[in-house]
Amino acid sequence: xxxxxxxxxxxxxxxxxxxxxxxxxxxxxxxxxxxxxxxxxxxxxxxxxxxxxxxxxxxxxxxxxxxxxxxxxxxxxxxxxxxxxxxxxxxxxxxxxxxxxxxxxxxxxxxxxxxxxxxxxxxxxxxxxxxxxxxxxxxxxxxxxxxxxxxxxxxxxxxxxxxxxxxxxxxxxxxxxxxxxxxxxxxxxxxxxxxxxxxxxxxxxxxxxxxxxxxxxxxxxxxxxxxxxxxxxxxxxxxxxxxxxxxxxxxxxxx
Length: 255
Description:
Strand content: 35-45%
Order of helices and strands: EEHHEEEEEEHHEEEE
Radius of gyration: 18 Å
Low-confidence stretches: 1-5
């Protein structure tokens, strides 16, 4: 396998944080030139791969053992707008295991060091061939981390369910296509955020997003048709994707 390059990535040994400096490109922004939520998720997953590789449990290492990282939950908090051509620094750090999950946080900071976007994420390791979960004790020899770590968001990303007593409406369908599929062979996590935002009325999606919660319940693959359901509860929108009646993802967006 071709060795990876670490150009433009920096690992801060003193605080066990990995940093990438980015100038926000136009294709990651909306019509107001602001960073799209899905674009943040794109940046987060890329730096997560590089950081894990630096610590000895990245894609290349796991792939040798026919295993792979899969994102299961994420909570993103948007506190300050990030715009086209802004120079920012994205930090990430591994926080160890929490039950069946491995936790990783993110902090996107502006040129003045002010935090603009923070996030916490929960991951599992799966067997690439069987698609079954690999239990943490089986990976303990690889996945080690110091106990003294920061929290971008203290609480792990929560489980999201649709509000009781409210019936969602059909917002459309999406057939998983070529552009949705990632290197693991299923729909890339950021695509679900794209689908969810596209389910909203345009005037709603244009509002400043404060919190994004997303659960990945079941992988989807090329050719599958995902039924998209939505409902609004106060300032929050929920979008759920189902395949054959089974939930594959749920998104909560607070504006």
